[in-house]
Amino acid sequence: MGGKLTGFSADEYLSALKKLLPYGPAWEDEQSEQMQAVLYLTAKELQRIDTDLARLIDESDPRTASVSLSQWFYEWGIPDDCLKMLEDVSIEQYRSRLIVKIRTLGLTFQELLSVIAQISGIESVTAGRVTPFSVNSTVNDRIYGPNWIHAVLVITASTDGVKYFTADSCVDEHLAQWGNELFECLVRSVAPAHKVIVFQYED
Fold it and tell me: What is the per-residue pLDDT across 63-93, written as a single tens digit (0 to 9) for each?
């Protein structure tokens, strides 16, 4: 059957099975319909197993898995709270989130932040500490005490723009809207537990 390990057809398995039959009078009716049916059904089953073995390679990788994809999602907690915020989420979006969770194992928070920004379509993002309020601060600076520099983490991200209130807006809409809820949810999910996360956006 050649040098290959998988990918054999039912006919190739049937030919191999015939060659494995022992010699002697007991097998002289090898060509009978009953014997042919038994051999052919065995060959078909071997072909099915062959196909499943070949698919194991695809199923072992979440980027190509199909049959085992739901098990991948279950093992990695997909959909997570952030995905549940979205409507009409596709299987491929689930797969993308799964791949990101796997790829980011062992990364630092700053590295995770960059990956999350990339998949969220944000061009630039930085993480920094707050500045304690002092006599040199301006009147519109936040009044943070010295200890807050250890507890607050400021995430500064670029944004595509701000949606402003217009004559066509409804009365219950904000005067201006900006931000990215999914991005913020993903960042909070990987941020240090002892940190208060503050997001700010640059237009």
Answer: 889 889 999 999 999 988 888 887 888 888 8
Q: For residue 192, say if its preceding peptide bond is cis, omega within 30 degrees of 0.
A: no
| Residue found by looking up tokens 């304690």 in the block | 132
Q: Which residue has the tokens 């390990």?
A: 5
Distance in angstroms (rounded) separating the CA atoms of residues 59 and 70? 11
Q: What's the mean pLDDT when you consider all of the chain? A: 82
Lookup: tokens for 32: 């009978």
For residue 161, give both structure tokens.
Answer: 């723009």
Residue-wise DSSP of 164-176? E--TTS-TTS-SE
- Is residue 157 over pLDDT 70? yes
Q: How far is CA 163 from CA 166, 176, 179, in A?
A: 9, 6, 10
User: For the chain, what are the domain ranges?
Assistant: 10-59, 123-202
pTM over 0.70: no
Contact 161, 140 (CB under 8 A): no
Long-range (24+ apart) CB contacts under 8 A made by 177-185 are 178/203, 180/120, 180/122, 181/85, 182/82, 182/85, 182/86, 182/120, 183/116, 183/117, 183/120, 183/122, 183/157, 185/81, 185/82, 185/85
Please enumerate in sequence order all residues whose Cβ is within 8 A of that of 81, keeping only pairs 6 or more positions apart, or say none: 185, 189
Q: Is pLDDT above 70 for 3?
A: no
Backbone angles phi, psi at 76, to 5 degrees: -105, 10
